[in-house]
Amino acid sequence: MDLGIKEKVALVTAASKGIGKAVAESLAAEGCMIAICSRNKEDLTASSADIKRKFGIEPFWVVCDLNKQKDIENTFESVVRQFGRIDILINNCGGPEAGNFRDLSDINWQAAFEQVLLSTVRFCNLIVPEMILREWGRVVNITSLTVKQPADNLMLSNSMRSGVSGYAKSLSNEVAKYNITVNNVAPGYTLTNRIYDLAVHNGKKSGKSHEEVLADMAKEIPMNRLASPEEIASVVSFLASKQASYITGSTIQVDGGLIKGLY
Ligand code: NAD
What we know:
The protein is 48% helix and 14% strand. By secondary structure, it is of the alpha/beta class. Strand 4, helix 4 (106-134) and strand 5 (137-142) form a beta-alpha-beta unit.
């Protein structure tokens, strides 16, 4: 299906790896002009070259630490200087620290707030006003299954991602009349480097191989397997499409059936 977003300008944050990179690839396949950012220049140049090789579109990249306001402003200004506008904003981020309530200091809470919630708010504050003037825009936030079913030992993700959901719903109500949609995609377990490293780490602690840890995770999921990053990305791209014009304020879980509740 042609998603009707050829030559739209898309900024995907935290996109040098994993789900963010898969989203950038999916939007490049649709003919979008792509900008990506993350903290590490080497990862960005490698990802950018990879996307160019696969799709013939070279993403514009900017080094950006999502915890830093100046970096976010610089990213916005650099992308607008390069492309003149931003039509599609995909707010992705790194995962916040794991831990239960006793494990987490004010510093951990502050860092998670800045990375997960405040970076989303800051990018929207910079980009959505221009979308309003052009009367078209798409904002998609990558959250987590934890917004529907809080996960053990992930106090920061459970708390901050729900903040993103509340923010997105409020923003969607304010901007719907300008043909701007704001939605969230909540991934379940997705096989990225982050999950692979976690499986290696947990395997060492429990005396299991990482394959066994991943197999145990898969057993929790009705589909009996983890998602690929591309399976998350295709839903994100659909929400960014012309066809998704009447979906706003929603959270779409992409979890292979992992969340057991009805809503
Ligand atoms: P990943 O670790 O593979 O990739 C994370 C990306 O974020 C990388 O490009 C990294 O460079 C970038 N990043 C990290 N901290 C940053 C910072 N401060 N500033 C800028 N960029 C930064 O992770 P992933 O598995 O692709 O996950 C992406 C998001 O989805 C995360 O927030 C994660 O918690 C969430 N999520 C992932 C899963 C999963 O199973 N993989 C499940 C639910 C939610």
